[in-house]
């Protein structure tokens, strides 16, 4: 996997958050209670999750900086309870929370010394991650949930740099060796390729059973469940069902 550029990724999070806040500024309180594109969640649920996710990543950045174990969330129940508690707030309260939690994330990222960026922390469900990849994790949360809000920000509007980093992450980390996904070879229109699914992503992974070709936008949309795979070419094979993220 390509080495992260932590300062660049932190700046990208700031820019993505600004785009999100501009979109939200066009809404009203009634819109916050309307369904999002995520089953069972209103827009308020998505926004509450985004704010608390920022604070959860602050916890991990603090862990990396201090070497004092600091979990993302006190518990799964506490995480879910915080989202339910905050979902029904007025738009102004959500906006304030998003701004303040984004500022805390930016400050924690700024405070992380360069010699602590390779420190490994434990995310939810036992996933281990390098501290200098937490900005990319946050970027994915902001960009993809902006799409999930159903406010006119579509997969096709995701920045090319984000699409590239997210596609590499999905292929080489998230779905590499995934037992519920058949062997895949992903190909972008510009010639880049990844092997993922049950064969993993290494050079010795063997031949992929399904080749899926298309633009990075369509591949990321399909792999993240934000698009149905229209525009992807499977050379006649059925398009596999992607497991939930």
Provide a descriptive summary of the structure in words.
This protein is mainly alpha-helical and 245 residues long. It is built from 8 helices and 5 strands; from the N terminus they run αααααββααβββα. It has helices at 6-24, 29-32, 43-66, 76-86, 91-111, 134-148, 160-174, 216-223, and strands spanning 120-122, 128-130, 184-188, 193-196, 210-214. The strands form 2 sheets. The protein has a 3-stranded mixed β-sheet with strand order 4-3-5, covered by helices on one side. Strand 3 and strand 4 form a beta hairpin. Helix 3 runs parallel beside helix 5 (91-111). The chain is globular, with a radius of gyration of 18 Å. The two termini are 19 Å apart.
Set out the fold topology.
Blueprint (H helix, E strand, L loop, with lengths): L5 H19 L4 H4 L10 H24 L9 H11 L4 H21 L8 E3 L5 E3 L3 H15 L11 H15 L9 E5 L4 E4 L13 E5 L1 H8 L22
Helix pairs in contact: 1-5, 1-6, 3-4, 3-5, 3-6, 7-8
Mean pLDDT figure: 94
Query: Distance between the terminal alpha carbons, to the nearest Å?
Result: 19 Å
Bin the helical content.
40-55%
| Spatial sequence of strands, sheet with the most strands | 4-3-5
Radius of gyration: 18 Å
Helix-strand pattern? HHHHHEEHHEEEH
Shape: globular
- What are the segments in which pLDDT stays under 50 over at least 5 consecutive residues? 201-205
Largest sheet features: 3 strands, mixed
How many beta-strand segments?
5
């Amino acid at each position: 996997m390509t080495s992260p550029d932590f300062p660049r990724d932190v700046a990208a999070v700031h820019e993505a958050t600004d785009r999100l806040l501009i979109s939200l500024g066009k809404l009203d309180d009634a819109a916050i209670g309307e369904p999002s594109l995520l089953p069972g969640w209103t827009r308020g649920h998505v926004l509450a999750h985004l704010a608390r996710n920022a604070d959860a990543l602050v916890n991990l950045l603090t862990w990396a900086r201090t070497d004092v174990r600091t979990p993302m969330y006190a518990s799964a129940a506490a995480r879910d309870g915080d989202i339910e508690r905050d979902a029904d707030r007025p738009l102004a309260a959500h906006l304030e929370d998003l701004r303040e939690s984004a500022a805390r994330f930016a400050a924690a990222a700024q405070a992380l010394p360069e010699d602590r960026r390779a420190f490994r922390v434990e995310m939810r469900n036992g996933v281990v991650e390098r501290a200098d990849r937490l900005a990319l994790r946050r970027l994915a949360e902001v960009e993809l949930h902006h799409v999930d809000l159903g406010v006119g920000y579509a997969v096709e509007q995701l920045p090319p740099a984000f699409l590239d980093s997210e596609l590499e992450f999905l292929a080489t980390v998230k779905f590499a060796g995934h037992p519920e996904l058949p062997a895949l070879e992903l190909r972008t229109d510009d010639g880049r390729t990844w092997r993922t699914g049950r064969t993993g992503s290494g050079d010795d992974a063997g031949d992929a059973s399904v080749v899926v070709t298309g633009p990075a936008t369509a591949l990321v949309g399909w792999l993240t469940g934000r698009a149905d795979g229209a525009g992807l070419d499977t050379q006649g094979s059925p398009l596999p069902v992607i497991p939930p993220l």
